[in-house]
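Hi support team,

I've been running sequence recovery on a batch of backbones for a student project. Most finish fine, but this one hangs at about 90% for roughly twenty minutes before it completes. I'm not sure whether the input is malformed or the queue is just slow. I've pasted the structure tokens below so you can try to reproduce it. Let me know if you need the job ID as well.

Thanks,
M.K.
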């Protein structure tokens, strides 16, 4: 079974690609703010600390820079590759079907890495969850037929792993 250490930080390749695309968008947005800053500074005779358009631009820039730093940090600390699943066990990148014991219902999940833009979205009828979520963490390493207890105490059984 693949064991993730405390230092391991995994991001799936498609999420790395999305993060890199978003980094490019943010950098472009920040560059495009230059003329708006110039205009905001020159559109009033007030000093910069009383200039609402300037303050709004500065606040928007701060939000973009914070997002940019978060994305770059996530990419820089991620492992180069995600470990492969061993012996039919659930790992990051697995598609999992869980059966509810009493309700006869199925739940389909896609286990993403430690960071994903797609959290909560559905891909091919599988909800994307993080490996750090309570459910995701409890699924890691499970095999077909294993039991999983949700935080609300519901019992589910691993019915399929892809």
């Amino acid at each position: 079974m693949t064991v993730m250490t405390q230092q391991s930080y995994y991001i799936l390749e498609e999420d790395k690609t999305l993060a890199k695309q978003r980094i490019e968008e943010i950098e472009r947005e920040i560059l495009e703010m230059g003329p708006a800053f110039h205009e905001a500074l020159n559109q009033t005779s007030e000093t910069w600390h009383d200039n609402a358009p300037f303050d709004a631009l500065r606040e928007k820039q701060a939000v973009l820079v914070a997002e940019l730093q978060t994305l770059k940090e996530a990419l820089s600390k991620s492992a180069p590759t995600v470990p492969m699943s061993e012996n039919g066990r659930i790992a990051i990148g697995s598609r999992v079907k869980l059966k509810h014991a009493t309700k006869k219902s199925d739940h389909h999940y896609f286990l993403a890495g430690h960071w994903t833009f797609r959290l909560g979205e559905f891909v091919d009828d599988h909800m994307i969850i993080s490996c750090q979520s309570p459910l995701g963490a409890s699924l890691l390493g499970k095999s077909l037929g294993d039991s999983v207890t949700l935080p609300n105490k519901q019992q589910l059984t691993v019915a399929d792993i892809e």
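--
Follow-up from support: It reproduced on our side and the slowdown came from queue contention, not your input. Helices lie at 13-42, 52-77, 134-139. No action needed from you.
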